Amino acid sequence: MINQIQGLHHVTSLASDARTNNNFFTNELGLRRVKKTVNFDAPDVYHLYYGDKQGTPGTVMTYFPFPHAARGKRGAGEVGLTGFAVPKGALPYWQDRLAAMGTAGLARSSSFGQERLSFQGPDGDDFALIEVEDDARAPWEGTDVPAEAAIRGFHSAQLRLRDEGATSELLKYMGYQVLDHQGDMTRLIREGGNGADIVDIETLPGATAARQGAGSVHHLAFAVPDRAAQLEVRKALMDTGYQVTPVIDRDYFWAIYFRTPGGVLFEIATNEPGFDRDEDTAHLGEALKLPRQHEHLRAKLEQNLQPIEG
């Protein structure tokens, strides 16, 4: 069994407009933009990162905003919902705040004994704020959201699959264990993780396949402490029969990728070197940072990329 994984590292999704996406996460949800860079494979498209003060693994939501991208189609084989942890008693504040901002899909519910507020992002992304007791992670305080209500980081990611069996076994191999079952949902947890410890699997046997587009999660990333641990995980996965990419330098972490039995793309990302490798922590996310191979395009990119405030 793999024991190096510490929980979620980041969640990367697709969007249709960079400015709208930035406003939603920084102004509505009160997260910090910790990096403004570009897609390695399509440098004319931003890669935006949002999280806590320093972009701690387990707090970072990232987006590729492809201008005017068509919306994705919900279905099996995707991350269906991303959950954020908030303190106990914070949901009334968030319900009032998000309602005043016209956020779509607001609904209160309870799942696995925890109160949650579901809502949708600008591209129909499915999110939930989930009340958690004793979450020691510090929130970003450079916002109008009071610290006693602010997002602490990820709570969970929810997979939508036709059959949970093979993916559940994979997650167990990755150090997760089944915590509970509720209806068509199975909850797995990485005990002693980084706070972003939960993966839920929703089993929908008759669901049609998801189609990626704006509002879809592109991949789900899990955290390991360093490159040595990542190489151990890569070898273990390959020895089990998974086709895993070589290690790829993503500037702020190293990454490997593989496709799960249910169709979801998983990434294993290192906690090192972090988002302060090319910016002081006090100024994260302010300047346009480019991968070395795209630095020669700076003048063109700065002229053509949509300006983002803040």
From TrEMBL:
Residue ranges of every copy of the VOC domain listed in the record: 7-132, 153-271
Gene3D superfamilies attached here? 2,3-Dihydroxybiphenyl 1,2-Dioxygenase, domain 1
Instruction: Name the source's superkingdom.
Output: Bacteria
Query: A Pfam family name for this chain?
Result: Glyoxalase
Among InterPro entries, the record links this protein to: Extradiol_RC_dioxygenase, Glyas_Bleomycin-R_OHBP_Dase, Glyas_Fos-R_dOase_dom, VOC_core
Query: Known PANTHER family for this protein?
Result: RING-CLEAVING DIOXYGENASE MHQE-RELATED
Name it: Glyoxalase family protein
